[in-house]
Design goal:
single chain, alpha/beta, Glutaredoxin, two-stranded antiparallel ribbon, 7 helices, 9 strands
């Protein structure tokens, strides 16, 4: 399916290894966050969007405790300023990085521009990418309509599919018992 974004952002291609400041002000590259493990890359319209808050609330409640023990990463990118990003992150009790594209440079580079909001200006079309540890795009969810955003269970299944491709998915001694 074609989505309004840069044409090379499609399943099987590598997501660009962009660098943005996080909610603490530290510049960080996507690859440094992933550290070779799968991740969920969420492009948010911003603190003001009730759909974004609902989506992220679901993830905090159901996925955040699991992400602490499953090695996978979650990353949110928005055009919010540091104050609003930190307020949203704190209100949600989210513990994953929120990356800030306040100058909207990445927004334009990725061609994910939502220009339909006269009040908040140019924001991201709410895409969610499921990435393998090497930044290869496994799945793309277009969240323009809320029901297009990935559910907790869809994310679990996507990450399971990616992790099951690893050589160490099965404990090494299991093969001894099958033999």
């Amino acid at each position: 399916m074609d989505y309004p974004m840069r044409t090379d952002l499609k399943i099987g291609n590598k997501f660009p290894n962009f660098e943005l400041p996080d909610h603490t002000g530290e510049n960080i590259k996507l690859s440094k966050i992933l550290r070779g493990f799968p991740g969920v890359l969420i492009f948010s319209r911003g603190y003001y969007c009730p759909k974004d808050r609902r989506q992220l609330t679901n993830y905090v409640t159901h996925l955040q405790p699991e992400f602490r023990v499953n090695y996978c990463k979650m990353i949110t990118v928005s055009v919010d300023d540091p104050l609003n990003a930190n307020e949203m992150r704190d209100a949600l009790a989210a513990d994953w990085p929120f990356l800030l594209d306040t100058d909207r440079k990445l927004l334009h580079e990725l061609e994910m521009v939502d220009n339909t909001d006269d009040v908040h200006g140019l924001v991201y079309i709410p895409y969610t990418f499921i990435l393998n540890g090497d930044r290869t795009i496994y799945k793309i969810y277009n969240g323009w309509w809320y029901v297009g955003r990935p559910t907790v269970e869809e994310i679990r299944m996507d990450l399971r599919a990616l992790l099951s491709q690893r050589d160490d998915w099965v404990h090494p001694r299991i093969s001894e018992y099958k033999g």
